[in-house]
Design goal:
single chain; mainly beta; 3-stranded antiparallel beta sheet; 6 strands; 0% helix
Length: 142
């Protein structure tokens, strides 16, 4: 979880923007829309991605090939579930430092010690391990 950047003085960054690939649902499937490879849609809280050509042609082949239908796998890849909301990330906050600057360098050798709330500096950015029980497990991966 990127919190901001530092150059020894800990200046906060500007407010974040919504990431279109963040958890949440893309636009609902609409049979009137012409879909192409890579486009994501939502159907019954599931995300589907239109396949590449030639299979992607089935993305526009009507209700018998719509996402979630018996034949949807011809043109659509079932990606996973979504909760229907796209929530922006929290604004960055000034997290301070012990003695003026970036004092917590990232080290791959320390991965086993990182847990929720751990803050490290890498390439002049400060990152904080998310407090979510599932996401914090990624903090121990390189």
């Amino acid at each position: 979880n990127e919190l901001g950047w530092c150059d020894g003085t800990m200046k906060p960054t500007s407010a974040p923007t919504i990431n279109p690939k963040a958890p949440g649902c893309p636009e609902s499937y609409d049979p009137k829309v012409s879909y192409s490879a890579g486009m994501d849609v939502e159907q019954d809280n599931m995300i589907y991605t239109c396949r590449n050509w030639p299979e992607g042609g089935y993305c526009n082949a009507g209700p018998n090939f719509a996402p979630g239908s018996k034949n949807s796998n011809f043109g659509w890849i079932k990606v996973g579930s979504c909760d229907g909301t796209l929530t922006p990330t929290a604004s960055p906050v000034h997290i301070g430092s012990a003695s003026g600057g970036c004092n917590f360098p990232y080290r791959a050798t320390d991965l086993g010690t990182y847990k929720a709330g751990t803050r490290v500096e890498y390439n002049d950015f400060i990152f904080e391990c998310k407090s979510d029980i599932h996401l914090s497990n990624y903090c121990k991966q390189s």
